[in-house]
Amino acid sequence: MTALFVALLFIFASGSGKVARASGAKGSRFVCTAVPAGTDLNCPVDTNNRVQSTSPLEEELRNTIIQLRETILQQKETIVSQQGTIKELNSKLTRCEADAKSRSNARRKDYSKNTMGDLPRDPAETVEQLGKTMQSLKDRLGNLEQQLRTNASGGPFPNELKDLLKHRLSDLEGQLLTRVAELEEEKSQLYNETATHRQRTENTLKSLLERITELEKSNSAFKSPEDFKVSLPLRTNYLYGRIKKNLPEMYAFTVCMWLKSSSSPGIGTPFSYGVPGQANEIVLIEWGNNPIELLVNDKVAQLPLSVSDGRWHHICITWTTRDGSWEAYQDGERLGTGENLAPWHPIKPGGVIILGQEQDIVGGRFDATQAFVGELSHFNMWDRVLRPIDISAMANCSTYMPGNVVPWVDANVEVFGGATKEALEICEDRLFDS
Questions:
Q1: Is the N or the C terminus of the chain less surrounded, counting Cβ atoms within 10 Å?
Q2: DSSP code string of 12-48
Q3: Contact, 111 vs 194, CB < 8 A?
Q4: CB of 381 within 8 A of CB of 347?
Q5: In the predicted model, is pLDDT for residue 15 greater than 60?
Q6: Pairing mode, if any, of strands 252-260 and 240-243?
Q7: pTM of this prediction?
Q8: What residue ranges define each of the domains in the chain, with the CATH number in brackets?
Q9: Does the pLDDT value for residue 50 go beyond 60?
Q10: Higher pLDDT residue, 134 or 299?
Q11: Cα(252)–Cα(182) distance, rounded to whole angstroms?
Q12: Could you write out the DSSP letters of every residue in 55-120?
């Protein structure tokens, strides 16, 4: 810009006669005279400080100089403004890249989770969104280049600034292309992680299906869902069965089952029902040399039953909250009755029924000395007191009545710790024992 101004001064000086001819030289040459800053170019003076007259050519050149100066000042302001815009765009691009990297790390962390069914989203969405942002920045930079190609008056912009801008745009384009390449690589990695996650999920599902198939095959030995028994051959604190059904609140109940045990002293705990706050809500137990006991809400009644001879026996216990009345049946015959066993206490819902163990907390903390040793089958529960004729019919194998609260079916019973479920036709097996 300074060189342009000096050249214009040279033109002005040569047109107005503001030059000195060098003496003693061949021909003529012009010597430029420096003009101090702030000198009024509209009022040229001679060596005697007299105002010189101006010609039309001088006036035209003077106006041209003034216009060029204004144009240069406007261009300078435009350069400063556009440089600020470029810095702002660079700052936004840097934040965009940092945000994209942060989201990518968070997305990669989420994909490392191994949860079934929780498949990650398609990472192409992230790449597509960043691509749109980058294209927008590139378009804005292109518009900026177009604006900088012309000045405020429509004239050409200096070549030096054009070259600088082109170089800067080339650098930004290279950075964008590099970033897109990185995102494409990351996209490929995310797809691979997704495929790996999907493969693990499919393998897990395949294993579950195989396990279900095995269980179906193992259960195919049962002629009907109720023709099986649970075997608990050892007195331990880890062999037991569990009923999957939940009990409602009850004001009466009847529990019936077939038992076979020769363990001594005492057969242990054929079943127990515990609820939060009361592990002994309902318990049937023969422990040590004590008789068989029925516990309701931790209250005890002794039952006149004897089933430790190694044969199958049909046992039924009834209870009602009214006066706490109870009855005990063995092989269809009522052997004992009583009252005042937890009277007016409703059986609480939301508990756990365990076969073969006495619960000290709901569903656990078993004591091996109280474990049932033997086999049991047809554990059924009703929310009412059954008639003696119905109990006798089940004991004589003349009828079968599944419990309306807990029916004895294969799907309702699971075993743990080495306890097993085996096929059994109870009435045929009972006749063989007799």
A1: C
A2: HHHHHT---PPTTSSS---------TT--TTS-B-TT
A3: yes
A4: no
A5: no
A6: unpaired
A7: 0.50
A8: 2-54 (no CATH), 67-214 (no CATH), 228-433 (2.60.120.200)
A9: no
A10: 299
A11: 72
A12: -HHHHHHHHHHHHHHHHHHHHHHHHHHHHHHHHHHHHHHHHHHHHHHHHHHHHHHHHT---TT-PP
Instruction: Tell me the Cα Rg of the chain.
Output: 50
Report whether 230 contacts 413 (CB < 8 A): yes
Q: What is the pLDDT of residues 23-42, one digit of tens each?
A: 444 455 555 555 555 555 55
Q: How far apart are the first and last CA of the chain?
A: 123
Compute the average pLDDT of residues 68-93: 78
Please give the distance of CA 343 from its chain centroid, rounded to a whole number: 50
**Average pLDDT across the chain, whole number:** 78
Tokens for 191, please give them. 């797809």
For residue 294, the surrounding DSSP H or E stretch is strand 293-296
Q: How far apart are CA 63 and CA 65, in angstroms?
A: 5
List of residues 6+ apart from 257 with CB closer than 8 A = 270, 271, 314, 315, 376, 377, 378, 379, 380
- Asked if residue 374 has pLDDT above 80, the reply is yes
User: How would you classify residue 51: left for phi > 0, otherwise alpha for psi between -120 and 50, otherwise beta?
Assistant: beta
Dihedral through CA 426, CA 428, CA 432, CA 434, nearest 10?
Answer: 70
CA–CA dist 265, 256 (Å, integer): 23
| Listed residue (314, 323, 365) closest to 342, CA to CA | 323
Torsion, Cα of 99, 103, 109, 113 (10° steps):
170
d(Cα 267, Cα 289) in Å, to the nearest integer? Answer: 10
**Edge-to-edge order in the sheet of strand 312-320:** 333-338, 325-330, 312-320, 252-260, 374-382, 228-232, 420-423
Tell me if the bond preceding 343 is cis, omega within 30° of 0: no
